[in-house]
Each structure stands twice: as structure tokens, then as C-alpha cells.
Amino acid sequence: MIIESFIVYFLLFIVFFSFPGLKNKEKPKSLLKFFSIPALLGVGMVLLTLIKVYFVYKFLVLLIVLVTFLITYWQWRDKLRRWWK
Q: CA distances (Å), 14 to each of 11, 33, 69, 76, 82, in order?
């Protein structure tokens, strides 16, 4: 059941991140980034499945985490860009 949940969430995030505005075809490393971010989010959702959090609360927790990362990115933008390259 855990693996199936991961696959469902992974595919859901792949579809979400495959929108044309979110893809970057210029860099060869973008394919690794394209699959790593949905994989990490899928693992996070599976961990929330393990602790029996309700479906709506999972997306609220995910939204809070994404907002936190966005605020962190705004604060540490330059250092994160240097680290990612």
C-alpha cells in the first residue's frame, strides 16, 4: 500500500510539474531536478499517509511547507542559487 501511495503521489506531482511554464529544457541537469522534486514531495506525502493524516490536512501541511520554502528562498536566494549550480 505504501509503494502504491508513493507512485500515485509521484505521478500527481510529475503531472503538476510538467506544465510548460515550470519546465526548463535548456539545461541537461533539469531532468534530474524534474524527477527529484516530485520524488521528495511524494515521499513526504507517503510519510503523512503512514501517520494517518486526513487527505485535506496533507495538502494543508504541504502548502505550509511550500510557503515556508518560498519564504526561505526569498531570504537566501543568492546562496541557494550558488549551491544549486
A: 5, 11, 19, 26, 25
Spell 24-43 as b/e; 16+ CB within 10 A means b: eeeeeeeeeebeeebeebbe
Segment 2-37, tens digit of pLDDT: 788 888 888 888 777 776 555 555 555 566 667 787
CA distance 73 to 84: 12
Prediction pTM value: 0.49
Sequence spans of domains, the chain: 2-84
